Amino acid sequence: MARCPACFVFLTVVIKNDVRIKTCSSCFGDWVARAGLMHLVRAVAPPAPASEAGGASSPANSTTVNLQDLAVLASESDTKNPLSCPDCHVQLAIDRLHPMIPVNLQFCRKCDGVWLDVGKLPLVQRLFHELLTTTDPRLVQVREKLALAEMAFEQRHERIETIRNRMSSPGLAAGPAGGYTFGGSMLFGLEELVDILTGRI
Ligand SMILES: [Zn+2]
Ligand SMILES: [Zn+2]
What we know:
The protein is built from 5 helices and 6 strands; from the N terminus they run E-E-E-H-H-E-E-E-H-H-H. The chain has helices at about 35-45, 60-75, 120-135, 135-165, 190-195, and strands spanning about 10-15, 20-25, 30-35, 95, 105, 115.
């Protein structure tokens, strides 16, 4: 039975959108397989203004509040030091799920699990959706460049896989899972990104 990497209490299994998440009842962090996290991030439904019964606040306003609150919570909960994997106990690597999403998560390169401090799962879900749908020209530009970078990465990855299969050499690694580098200078910090998405700058 796995323990929370941050506060060491036993993790509780919950199922969300058919994805198995191990959650901590003490710090409310989440441990999830990387593939499961991608499923959760992609499955998130767009905000539905119709469901808001009050009607007093515009959808844009409620979006603004939620996103900023989520960003503040995630910044405050951020574990800055690498933790140990709850499953295989190797040191986790701090990285982003996607270069455009400025939220640090902790990845196990060995068993492909991801640790998210409290608040980060809903924040990453929201940012992924917002970035996919934004019409802000600055973000659209980065999104297009990244799409090309990602495509190039996929092609390179496939080529490496082909070569590796041909040579059947275990020494030729394709790099860390999902890892590719992109000129970081174009990417936004969390505060700046939230400001752009909520129309404050
Ligand atoms: Zn915990
Ligand atoms: Zn592990």
